[in-house]
Design brief:
115 residues, alpha/beta, Rossmann fold, 5-stranded mixed beta sheet
């Protein structure tokens, strides 16, 4: 089913950070933008997808991968496919995000791992 899902329409360059809760997704986004726009802190700070516009690009802050958020809905797969690049944040071992990487591999989407 994931392979048949159409990409979400997006314009311009679009990047998103994926990772477990408290892996630094919002902090990384703030660093890329050079200012504090995304809330940071311990626990579930980001509870829904948030878009932040840079100079000619958009960054998306995504809720952490945990028991209450599933990256494996058709909506997320369409979102993944619409992105220019996917950045998977690893805080301890690649194992924590293996399931996400497997789905991205299965639908032939490239991604970068950030440690």
């Amino acid at each position: 089913m994931a392979a048949a899902t159409q990409p979400m329409p997006m314009t311009g360059a679009n990047f998103a950070f994926f990772g477990i809760t408290s892996s630094g997704k919002s902090t990384m986004l703030n660093q890329f933008l050079g200012k504090q726009v995304a809330a940071t802190g311990a626990g579930d700070t980001t509870t829904q997808v948030q878009r932040y516009d840079g100079n000619g690009f958009s960054l998306y802050d995504i809720p952490g991968k945990n028991d209450e958020v599933s990256y494996f809905t058709m909506e997320y797969v369409a979102f993944w496919k619409g992105l220019t690049a996917r950045l998977v944040l690893i805080t301890a071992t690649v194992k924590e995000m293996t399931s996400v990487c497997r789905v991205l591999d299965a639908i032939n989407l490239t991604y970068d791992i950030v440690v």
